[in-house]
Amino acid sequence: MDLRICRDAVKLLKEYSDEAMPNEAVAILVGRANDLYGQVDVIYLVPNEDRSPLSFSVSPEILALITRELGERDIIGIFHSHPFWKAYPSSADIEHMWGYRFWLILGTDGMRCFTLLKGNVIEVNIKVEDRSCDLVRVKK
């Protein structure tokens, strides 16, 4: 399984995570997905309601706003940072992974992606592509 994402978005997610320090950064990944791959077309940089280095949450109002703008696309994943830990789902992440196909995590060891398959955490290949993605910064 692969997650396809544009090169500029990877750079922006790293910069956004630096801005959020020491707290976790969070973004919503929108695009298309099937059993073999996901393609990120739009990334919504959203506020971390928890304002915490240990957790994140997104307000229901912001999720509703994004859902209204989806068109023919879907929310396919979540990006968040682990400012002081490796890029691997925490126990809290695993509890919430069922809601989204892809979990893109930036940790102290780089960026990695995961999915939950039959209750098991599986690493997903990240395919960085030279194409454009839309990037939207959502402010509360």
How do the helices and strands line up, and which of them pair or pack?
Elements: E1 2-6, H1 7-20, E2 26-33, E3 37-46, H2 60-68, E4 74-81, H3 91-96, E5 102-107, E6 110-117, E7 120-129, E8 134-137
Parallel strand pairs: 1-3, 1-7, 3-8, 4-5
Antiparallel strand pairs: 2-3, 2-4, 5-6, 6-7
Question: How would you describe the overall organization of this protein?
Answer:
21% of the residues lie in helices and 42% in strands. The chain has 140 residues and is α/β, with parallel strands linked by helices. The protein has a single domain (2-137), classed as 3-Layer(aba) Sandwich (Cytidine Deaminase, domain 2). The chain has a seven-stranded mixed barrel with strand order 1-3-2-4-5-6-7. Strand 4 (74-81), helix 3 (91-96) and strand 5 (102-107) form a beta-alpha-beta unit. The longest helix is centred in the first third of the chain and has 14 residues, at 7-20. The chain is globular and about 35 Å long.
Key traits:
140 residues; alpha/beta; Cytidine Deaminase, domain 2; seven-stranded mixed β-barrel; 8 strands
